[in-house]
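Every protein is a chain of amino acids, and every chain bends into a shape of its own. The fold becomes a row of whole numbers, each drawn from a learned catalogue of backbone shapes. The protein below has been through that process, and both of its lines are reproduced in full.
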Amino acid sequence: MVPSTTETHVHSVSALCKTVGSTPERVNHAELMLYRHCREGRGSDNALYFDGETYSYQQIAEEAARCTVWLYSLGIKPGNCVILCMPDCVTLVATYFGVVAAGAIAIILDPALTTEDAFYIAQLCEARLTISYEKVSERVQGLRSVPGMLAVIGAGLTWKSASELTSALAPIRSPDYPMLESPTGHAYGLLSSGSTGRPKLIVHRHQDILHGHFGFAGPVIGWTVDDRSISVAKMTTGYGLGCSVLMPFLRGASSVLVSEAPTATTLTHAIEAHRCTLLFAQPRFLAEEIAASDLADRLRSLRLVVTGGEPLAGALVDRWSRFSHVELLDSYGSTEVGFLYISNRPGDSRRGSVGRPIDGLQVEVVDGSGGVVQSGQIGKLKVRGPMIIDGYWNDPVRTLQSFHNRWFVTSDLFSLDEDGYYYIHGRSDHLIKLGCGDWVNPIELETVLLEHPSVRECAIVGAPDDHGLTVLRAIIIVDVVGLAGQELAVELATMVRERWPAQKYKRIEIVEFPETLPKTPAGKLDRSKLQPRSMTEFSYKC
């Protein structure tokens, strides 16, 4: 009998855990991703590049161990939650491993998160300690009032900078790094990047990312110790945390960190300076990079570019192929699953598709009643596998809405072709209602607009007209500022009208040309900032 991909997957994870004398249920991934390399003689290998300096696995391990001992001294116990609120930096990586090595749970929050949401999350997870970037620590000092919170500590971007954190830690250079098991197996928590309502807290176990590694990093990417990755998405997202730290560290590779939100120019400079081989980005970022055509020659060290976070339009794929010879792979993932889990493969990439699922997962497209749809039909994506969370942390209502019989049901709309390739059609909660119940998928219209050579980025949202009735509003970012104007607006509206001549509700009535579009920490379009009012507040032409 041939073992299933799931069985093979679990066997691979178990074999890796045995190398450190553990099991998937009891393993601490700080040992597998950090301390193991030091114990096996690879401590001097480069792990991180940040702010012009290079940090080895040994350096990160020593600082993580100092952090663990310091957490013990404060009274942090296994299973406690510790909030980390800082930009991508060396301190965040070392503190992260220090927290998980202590058996505690690292809750990584965006420094730009509102005080109200940070307070909500701190209460939700009953956080015991907050470590924040010292420049924003004043804004989060209010978390001191959360019941059970021991302290709110300020930290710098590197361990060499003066801060409350470094002054509190004594040097540790022993190979016997302190480590405790988590009583629940949980390691880290991230927030959902949803655009409405309170954020959801997604907490993963130590073993979860190991399944992602064996399904994605090896078979899809072919990640090796020689690879050097760089990510546009930040470590506050599953995409960014996996690309910047968890995947490369598990492989013994290295990565480049950029603390601020990068531009195409700054990121290209970092890729060239450090000779990065893997770039993880979002389609909208690539559009910005393509607009600066002089950057193409500086990407020669790359062997793969992976996109995720939102659909990659076919028009952008075509532009990229003219811009660079580096292979572009579109992928799909979610924080609930932990990482990218549907992807195109090198040499096997289908235009317009996000590819095929990784090994070890069951994936289906279902209709409103839960039945599997036929090839070519659109439905919600649902997924089941060993790395998926059981539900949202202390949130039973929203857990019941999205988790059923070990399946996670997403809000993303997909179709599947006869060859097993998946196509994303946007989110069900982003559909726009017009007329007497006509629904518009903004992704459809955005894909058409991106075919215009002057359009770099765009977004379609619902908006009220002068009478308070819902109409379609197009927000357009052009390649050349001088092109924006009434003539282009008419051209774009005409493109949409001619594509759907019989569907008269698919008409753009408002066109705007701002300089930028708002993005979430994951690098996706933040539609909530373009459409701040609920669509139920608008009236419909009927």
In short: The radius of gyration is 23 Å. The chain is about 30% helix and 25% strand. The longest strand covers residues 407-416.
